[in-house]
Amino acid sequence: MPKVLGGSLAAHRDEVRARVFAALRELLYERGFDAVTLAGVAAAAGVGRTSIYNHFPDRQALLVAFVEHEADRYVADLESALGAAATPTERLAVFARLQLHRLAEFHLPPGQALAGALDPESYRRIAAHADPIGDRLARIVREGIESGEMAAEDPAVLVAMIGAALSARQIVDVPPEELAGSVEAAVRIVLGMVRPSDLG
Fold it and tell me: Which residue range or ranges hold the HTH tetR-type domain (predicted)?
């Protein structure tokens, strides 16, 4: 019988998932999704191949579960950070900074490439996790326009432009020692994009 980690079946399940997700995160960073196999993730996680197949029948199921887990964690972190920011401009800076650091950590293929690598249902489940994040950005922009801190432009256009800017991998695909500076430069540029013209 396989060894039960953590002393109970529930704790074992949580421990296996935590190990597998940590291993997948590293493998995505090092190799990209195309090179990921369940056997490779199991080996990197230090769990048996049978164990990983009991949790995730294939690599698409693994990726969906990983993205759902990471998205839930990220949204909780985002809400906490946004709650500590006093103004819409400060909240946009927080949002931009967190999005760029998240982009630096995640090494999934871009939208169309990912859509081609997954079946339609798996892709829809992954894409759905972008909705709450986009909603928070839209709310920040609306509040910024209403307060006069941001340009009185079409909110949908501003949100789309900010989203595009914060998905540019060139910002974060830099040597580690340059990442913080690159992110902060991008945050300043995003804030400049939305600043009303009469504020310079």
Answer: 14-74
Measure the CA–CA gap between 131 and 141, rounded to whole angstroms: 15
Nearest to 96 by CA among 9, 28, 183: 183
- What's the chain's average pLDDT? 85
Report yes or no on whether pTM surpasses 0.90: no
DSSP 8: S
**Side chain identity at residue 188, one-letter code:** R
Residue 188 CB neighbour total at 10 angstroms: 12
Q: How far apart are CA 38 and CA 57, in angstroms?
A: 9
Dihedral of alpha carbons 103, 105, 109, 111, sign: negative
| 37 within 8 A of 59, measured Cβ to Cβ | yes
* CB-count exposure of residue 50 (10 Å: 0-12, 13-18, 19+): exposed
Buried residues in 111-125 as b, exposed as e (16+ CB within 10 A): eeebbebbeeebbeb
The predicted-structure confidence for 133-142, as pLDDT tens digits, reads as follows 889 999 999 9
Question: What gap in Å lies between CA 169 and CA 7, rounded to an integer?
Answer: 42
